[in-house]
Design goal:
By secondary structure, this protein is mostly helical. The chain contains 3 helices and no strands.
Amino acid sequence: ARDFHIVVDDVSITDLTFSQVYASAVEAKQIAHQEAQRAQFLVERAKQERQQKIVMADGEAQAAKLIGDALQSNPGYLKLRKIKAAANIARTISQSANRAFLNSNTLLLNLADPQFDASVEKVIKKR
């Protein structure tokens, strides 16, 4: 263009097509990138699930330790747990469409059982 004293300031390409091979290569690159992102997401999700399981296990271990400590320091805690369990069982059965007839031993309501009281007293004497 300089030989003819023409100054080109701007050029606009209006019809440009790439070869099929180039378009396929670009598409394959995008697919590979998406698959890599998906694999990275799966790894992150697995790490988070692992961490969640660790936290849950720690919480369960702490709860078990606290329950053990509560049982040692206060034997009446076991009686309270039995009452709560019996209430949950009774609530579940009462909301059921089926009819069930259970005795008090089945519902864990045998709280006045002398054997239970004797075991509680045995724990108290050990302290």
